[in-house]
Write a structure and sequence with these properties.
The complex is a heterotrimer.
Chain A: H1 5-24, E1 34-35, E2 44-49, E3 58-64, E4 67-73, H2 86-89, E5 104-108, E6 111-115, H3 117-135, E7 140-144, H4 150-164, E8 169-171, H5 178-188, H6 199-202, E9 205-209, H7 213-216, H8 218-230, E10 235-240, H9 245-249, E11 252-255, H10 261-274, H11 280-286, E12 287-291, E13 311-313, H12 315-321, H13 327-334, H14 338-349, E14 355-359, H15 361-364, H16 369-382, E15 392-395, H17 402-410, H18 424-434, H19 449-458, E16 463-467, H20 471-474, H21 478-485, E17 491-496, E18 508-511, E19 520-523, E20 528-532, H22 545-555, H23 569-577, H24 591-596, E21 600-601, E22 604-605, E23 608-609, E24 637-641, E25 657-662, H25 678-683, E26 689-691, H26 693-699, E27 706-710, E28 715-721, E29 732-736, E30 765-770
Parallel strand pairs in A: 7-8, 7-16, 9-10, 9-14, 10-11, 12-24, 14-15, 16-17, 17-18, 25-29, 26-28
Antiparallel strand pairs in A: 2-3, 3-4, 5-6, 5-18, 12-13, 19-20, 20-21, 22-23, 25-30, 26-29, 27-28, 27-30
Chain B: H1 2-39, H2 49-55, H3 62-77, H4 86-91, H5 117-120, E1 125-126, E2 131-132, E3 163-164, H6 192-196
Antiparallel strand pairs in B: 1-2
Chain C: E1 3-10, H1 15-24, E2 28-32, E3 39-44, H2 48-59, E4 64-73
Antiparallel strand pairs in C: 1-3, 1-4, 2-3
Classes of the chains: A alpha/beta, B mainly alpha, C alpha+beta.
């Protein structure tokens, strides 16, 4: 604890006084927080989903008077059963930062000045009108978020796709989960995990694939630890590119070279086949084999286009394909010893062991993200370990509602709430429910996120509305996209709660209501939708994001499509939205059910949640006796032949280190909320660069010393962290991205998976110098 | 709800075991120390003792640890162990029931599952802070660092106007001398012994009768305001 | 940099008033007790001169019954 001398003396002064008081008045107390006059018994508890990660813990928010004053875990929520993490326990403090944006701001003469919110909304609508008139409907765009409440995303999609008629609707989940989505669609035809969190209580083996679950989904990790504690034989294997808290807690930590997860996954399948561990009963009935294009590029150029082509093959072709992936060959490529590959294969191949694989950003933020998702599914499909309790390839979601809003409502350029814009049937359904002419809905997708910001830079997009996300911190290769947003004749509207680098480039800032200041819905990783009522008043002129969109939509002439009243609009929107999903493969629970219960999974069929999809025992939409992968026309799950291909930019003579980026336990994403929570900031006040101790010694860098990290795109000077909570292997550095004073994305590369269009934040080449 | 009472039963069992263990320790420790000294009476006349200690072969921390064993009993018996106050207890929290931050140094290399429990599950004496460690009321949760984090910095990124409610008053029995009701939430704090008994407990709430066992037979939760009203027009 | 801490006893019933009065003074930090009629006051002034001024101001407070010093550090 570094504490100045003056602060130390003041501390002594306080302690002396308090100690004296304690002897005079036994039982005296001076708490650390400012007190209201209200006593402990005045607290009312109401449920809400946590504001942070994709685990989707159920919380009980304690309010007293008109303030939130405490938090508990909701013991009725099956996700976390009353436990939270340090962010969840202090989540209510995000409402009370002193610099909360409570009034609308309009930029005049280069400075943001306060304005009445109605004036700001008028300006937003008129700017949209004039931009569309001058440059066409595809010159306006909205960039939303996996932290959008479901109604926010639905209103955005309806306005832009249904009424205005542009597919320029994207969300930051493109940067977070897109590869998971395309992985699901290519392997199964339908999005989202087929298992549920109960798999954690049933599995015998857990493998984490490139995700630091102990810090990123801590409550789920605790469930795994509880399982291991209760049964002697349970094993946790951490398969990652660096040593983290997860590695320390695991039974085995296996380190692989970046990108070589592709090869290792294939090698595991090679071993499963060689050892005759294939579950033939399952494979013959429920699996078909396919391959796609190879040498598919990296997307670093504007207008990059890629469309895959599927070709049906057979098991023989698959077996021959895997000959390139023997454990010995893969050991040379990946650095993973052949015996460790065999060890993993044996765990997967053992018919008596239930295996759950978890992954998140390590596999999704990957230039072959779709492929690696396919390859881990392959392992589970070859062994038939899927869609049953404990056997679960589980793609974890990062954000609290990337599933609920972005994926299920479909706030991506090519999606509709049901289906895709390219399909006439889906457009007809949307047009009918949205009450718009079907010609309004454009059948051609426009831009994915990276391309949308390129379009903004080029001038093909002139107006962008950003809600609930911070792209001026999170876009890879940030220098280009910030410069693009700051160009003349680019109108940026930002709906925000605190000042951020994104509000710094805004022309209009709309003050948003936050979390329990408005009624909302989130949908978490395991297909569970959770509802909260409004619990505290909206400060100042803040306005719920959904209502902001409704206000603008009405000003654009779409009163008929946005007719709802202020009192019931969230419920009305839920009722309209769920019409899109009204069949047993996706039915959502009714509003009353969600209001009463601590989360309900979909499909919700005849009053029951479908916990394991595709398994006829648990899923009413599955026909037959055992499994029915009804997402695909052949009712089978698809094994894809996906090869190893190198990353977009690997270390070389000039830039000899890998740059890896990610999060830490204490901070959520860009820190705009968590850095304003005192205990979290005090635990983790500043970002840093993790350097391997031997590399540090070679470079003459000590712990805390300043280091300059440079890539071909940008550079940053940061303090070194050596032997901290994360230790990268030699040749790699790791930087967390929560600190807006160290915009590490100025250094990263905007290469992406050509199928999912999700950028790879985990791999680019940098050099280090003492600064 | 079933879960909680089962957990309470388990924790009471642990509590009972702890009591017995603590009892034995407290009795045995001074005896053990005295016994050790008496074995060396020939060599360890008081003036000669330092020389003997100096001659012993200690590794890096060995001497400090060895000597701190002597000091444990002395500090404890002389009341030099810095007792925990209610003020200090609340100063580590942001509201009633929030997870306290870690007020002592911790190593990053302590993994997710824990080193913490070696002291905080059954109690311990730390020479570094010269006090007894507080016990966790929920030792079954082993990923400690998921909720409890240290303070590495005293600054703020932005000031905050956070407020929360008053902590409960102490000892407010309904009748003089009666059992005070439980003024705090029981979620994750159902293990009475962990916080109310023993040298690691906050002095203001330390009970004098821990051996009675079934705390909840006399102490009931006092969380719901209001009085009984009949729903009848009669 | 003189730093002092005191136990501040309010006049009868004037605890809130005293708290507000003290919070309004420069160089003062107040820590009221939750459950007794006493407050902790910590003063941290840049030099002796301002310290003397502050002491005079404190003596003039009507809501303050008495001050008991519990810590003193005069600087250097």
């Amino acid at each position: 604890m570094s504490i100045s001398r003056r602060a130390f003396i003041k501390n002594m002064a306080v302690n002396s006084a308090v100690a004296a008081a304690a002897t005079l008045f036994p039982g005296i107390s001076f708490g650390d927080w400012k007190k209201t006059d209200l006593p402990a018994g005045s607290i009312q508890w109401q449920k809400a989903p946590c504001r942070f990660c994709g685990t989707g813990c159920g919380l009980l928010i304690g309010t007293s008077g008109d303030r939130a004053v405490a938090v508990k875990g909701d013991p009725n929520c099956s996700v976390n059963k009353g436990l939270c993490c340090v962010k969840g326990y202090h989540s209510v403090q995000i409402l009370y930062g002193n610099d909360r944006i409570q009034k609308a701001l309009i930029r005049k003469n280069g400075k943001l000045v306060e304005a009445p919110i109605q004036e700001a909304l008028d300006l937003v609508a008129s700017k949209m009108k004039s931009t569309i008139k001058a440059h066409g409907k595809d010159s306006v765009s909205i960039y939303g978020s996996g932290q959008w409440s479901i109604a926010d995303g639905y209103a955005a999609s309806k306005l832009f796709k249904g009424c205005i008629g542009t597919n320029n609707v994207e969300a930051n989940a493109r940067l977070c989960m897109a590869s998971a989505v395309t992985g699901f669609l290519t392997s199964f035809g339908l999005d989202e995990p087929m298992g549920c969190y109960e798999d954690m209580d049933n599995a015998d083996v857990f493998v984490t694939w490139g995700n630091n679950m102990a810090e990123m989904h801590p409550v789920l990790f605790s469930r795994m630890l509880a399982n291991r504690k209760s049964k002697d034989h349970v094993r946790i294997i951490d398969f990652a590119t660096r040593t983290t808290r997860t590695s320390q807690a695991a039974d085995r930590s296996i380190i692989f070279k970046p990108q070589t997860d592709l090869a290792v996954a294939n090698a595991i399948c090679y071993e499963i086949i060689r050892n005759k561990w294939v579950n033939w009963g399952f494979v013959k009935k429920h699996v078909s084999f396919h391959k796609g294009k190879t040498n598919i590029g990296y997307g670093t150029e504007d207008h990059f286009n890629f469309k895959d082509k599927a070709e049906t093959v057979d098991f023989k072709a698959y077996k021959a394909f895997l000959e390139d992936y023997t454990p010995e060959k893969v050991e040379k490529l990946s650095g993973v010893p052949a015996k460790d590959i065999r060890y993993l294969a044996a765990l997967y191949g053992d018919p008596g062991k239930k295996v759950t694989s978890f992954w998140c950003m390590g596999m999704n933020q990957h230039t072959r993200g779709t492929w690696i998702n396919n390859l881990v599914y392959n392992i589970h499909l070859l062994t038939g370990k899927i869609s049953s309790p404990g056997n679960s390839p589980f793609s974890l979601t990062g954000q609290p509602s990337a599933c609920g809003t972005v994926r299920e409502v479909g706030t991506l350029t090519h999606k509709l709430p049901h289906g895709v814009v390219m399909k006439e049937g889906a457009r007809k359904m949307a047009a009918e429910i949205w009450n718009v002419p079907v010609e309004n809905i454009d059948p051609k997708p426009t831009y994915h996120t990276v391309e949308m910001f390129r379009a903004l830079d080029r001038g093909d997009i002139r107006f962008m509305w950003v809600q609930v996300t911070n792209p001026m911190v999170t876009m890879p290769n940030l220098n280009r996209y910030r410069a693009g947003a700051e160009k003349e004749d680019r109108f940026m509207v930002v709906s925000e709660i605190y000042p951020t680098p994104t509000t710094d480039v805004a022309d209009v800032v709309l003050p948003s209501a936050l979390w329990v200041e408005r009624e909302g819905f989130f949908g978490n990783s395991e297909r569970r939708t959770q509802h909260n009522v409004q619990m505290v008043p909206q400060p100042g002129e803040t306005m719920c994001n959904t209502w902001q969109i409704i206000e603008v939509a009405r000003r654009l002439g779409f009163e008929k499509q946005f007719p709802w009243s202020r009192e019931t609009y969230i419920e009305d929107i839920w009722n309209e939205y769920t019409r899109f999903h009204d069949h047993p493969k996706h039915r959502m629970a009714p509003y009353k059910e969600l209001k009463a219960r601590s989360g309900v999974q979909w499909p919700f069929v005849d009053g029951k949640e479908t916990k394991w999809r595709y398994n006829a025992k648990y899923d009413p939409a599955a026909k037959g006796e055992d499994f029915d992968f009804y997402g695909k026309p052949d009712h089978k799950a698809w094994i894809w032949l996906r090869p190893y291909e190198p990353p977009a930019e690997s270390p070389d003579g000039e830039y000899p280190f890998w740059l890896n980026t990610g999060r830490v336990l204490e901070h959520w994403h860009t820190g705009s909320m968590t850095r304003r929570i005192p205990i979290l900031h005090k635990a983790m006040p500043e970002s840093y660069v993790e350097i391997n101790p031997q590399d540090a010694a070679d470079l003459g860098i000590t712990n805390g010393a300043k280091v300059k990290i440079s890539s071909r795109r940008g550079s940053k000077v940061m303090k070194a962290s050596i032997n901290g909570r994360g230790i990268p292997p030699k040749g790699m550095v790791f930087v967390p991205f929560f600190d807006e004073s160290y915009l590490i994305n100025e250094v990263t590369l905007d290469a992406f998976c050509p199928i999912s269009k999700q950028p790879d934040y985990k791999k680019c080449a940098v050099k280090l110098e003492r600064a | 709800m079933m879960n909680e009472s089962d957990q309470n039963k388990d924790q009471k069992k642990i509590g009972k075991v702890f009591l017995v263990f603590a009892g034995i320790c407290i009795l045995a420790l001074p005896l053990a120390v005295l016994a050790a000294f008496s074995q060396h009476t020939e060599e360890t006349v008081s003036a000669a003792q330092p020389a003997a200690v100096q001659q012993m072969d200690f590794d890096s921390q060995g001497r400090v640890i060895f000597e701190s064993y002597d000091n444990i009993v002395k500090d404890y018996l002389e009341g030099l162990s810095t007792e925990r106050t209610l003020e200090e207890y609340y100063s580590r929290r942001q509201y009633l029931g929030s997870p306290p931050y870690i007020p002592h140094k911790v190593k990053d290399s302590d993994g997710a599952e824990m080193a913490c429990l070696t002291c905080h599950a059954q109690g311990g004496w730390t020479a570094e802070l010269k006090r007894h460690t507080p016990l966790t009321p929920h030792p079954e949760q082993t990923a400690c660092r998921q909720c409890h984090i240290p303070e590495t910095d005293q600054t703020l990124f932005q000031p905050n106007n956070w407020v929360s409610v008053q902590p409960p008053r102490l000892g407010r029995a309904y009748l003089p001398g009666g059992p005070p009701p439980i003024p705090h939430e029981l979620q994750m704090r159902g293990n009475c012994i962990a916080c109310h008994v023993g040298p690691g407990a906050v002095t203001a709430i330390r009970v004098q009768h821990p051996s009675r066992g079934n705390c909840r037979q006399c102490h009931v939760p006092d969380l719901f305001p209001g009085l009984f009203h009949r729903n009848s027009d009669y | 940099m003189p730093v002092f801490s005191y136990l501040a006893y309010p006049e009868k019933g004037a605890k809130e008033q005293l708290r507000n009065d003290l919070a309004g003074l420069d160089h003062c930090e107040v820590l009221p007790s939750d459950n007794e009629e006493v407050l902790v006051l910590v003063t941290d002034t840049p030099d002796e001169h301002i310290e003397k001024d502050l002491k005079k101001k404190l003596e003039g407070l009507k809501s303050l019954q008495s001050l008991g010093m519990t810590f003193g550090h005069t600087g250097e």
